[in-house]
Amino acid sequence: MKSIVVTSGKGGVGKTTVTACLGRALAALGNRVVLMDADFGLNNLDVVLGLENRVVYDIADVIDNRCRVRQALIEDEIRDLYLLPSAHGYLGDKVTAQNLKLILHSLSSSFDYTLVDCPAGIEAGFKRAVAACEKAIVVTTPHISALRDANKVVAMLSAYKFSPTLVINRVRGDLLADGKIPDKDEIAAILKVDVDGVIPETDGVYDPRKMPKRPFELLARRIHYGCGEIPDPAASYRGILGAIKRKLRRGE
User: Fold this and answer.
1) Nearest to 223 by CA among 8, 15, 25
2) What is the pTM of this model?
3) What one-character-per-residue DSSP string does the chain give?
4) CB within 8 A of 106, min separation 6: which ones?
5) Residue 168 neighbours by CB distance under 10 Å
6) Integer Cα distance of 223 and 217 in angstroms
7) Burial class (CB within 10 angstroms; exposed 0-12, middle 13-18, buried 19+) of 127
8) CB contact set of 75 (below 8 Å; sequence gap of 6+)
9) pLDDT number for residue 69
10) How many Cβ atoms sit within 10 Å of the Cβ of residue 75?
11) C-alpha 178: how far from its chain's center?
């Protein structure tokens, strides 16, 4: 089983939505996938997946031996996709990197991937999630403040001997075509990290069941097979017709 921590330098870049959509796409490729919500402060992966009303046990119950890991898992509408919910309430020192590792180990014989949604930033929650996993994905948007914070996360991950990959989220194709935001190659050069996915702006639609599937299908293929296409959100905004489309997008 591959355990992948999904992190970001700052909140609000779509990390949890990317985790959910990538999990669905990996499951659609025929993998058995668990999404672990390790963001104990701002936990909402269950809400993003629409599973909040089905939570009976959570990760705190597993750690306190009130249930087995399998009992806490909630099956999504997508076949072979499961959620391990985060704890709601004060945990004290119960959640450690070792506890997370033990949980991941117990899942390893039955699942192909575990995606661990961890807190944004580089504080304690980030460190324990990273220490429990084998690989890392950093989610950012193409804006200066997000890239600056993502750079701090990449630097911290290097201290853990990780070679993270990058997902650039919420990319507006019209701004990209106009050169007003950096493209994936420029961002890769700035952060000195490979880009595995580019997700276009969805104009306020963040429900995994309603978001475009294709960008996440391509991302899942790159994660699973190690190669594949990266979408270009600016493609439809280039040329004469693209210029007209850009003006319409901006309301000109």
Assistant:
1) 25
2) 0.94
3) -EEEEEEESSTTSSHHHHHHHHHHHHHHTT--EEEEE--SSS--HHHHHT-GGG----HHHHHTTSS-HHHH-EE-SSTTEEEEPPP-S--TT---HHHHHHHHHHHTTT-SEEEEE--SSSSHHHHHHHHH-SEEEEEE-SSHHHHHHHHHHHHHHHHTT---EEEEEEE-HHHHHTTSS--HHHHHHHHTSEEEEEEE--TT---TTTS-SHHHHHHHHHHHHS------TTGGGSHHHHHHHHHHHHT-
4) 69
5) 29
6) 10
7) middle
8) 81, 82
9) 96
10) 12
11) 27
What Rg value do the Cα atoms of the chain yield, rounded? 18
**By percentage, how much of the chain surpasses pLDDT 90?**
80
Task: Tell me the pLDDT tens digit for each residue of 72-126.
Answer: 999 999 999 999 999 876 565 678 899 999 999 999 999 999 999 999 999 988 9
Contact 156, 123 (CB under 8 A): no
Q: Which two tokens stand for residue 67?
A: 């249930």
pLDDT range class, residue 184, cuts 50, 70, 90: very high
Confidence at residue 239, expressed as pLDDT on a 0 to 100 scale = 81
Cβ neighbours of residue 14 closer than 8 Å, sequence gap 6 or more: 139, 141, 169, 170, 199, 206
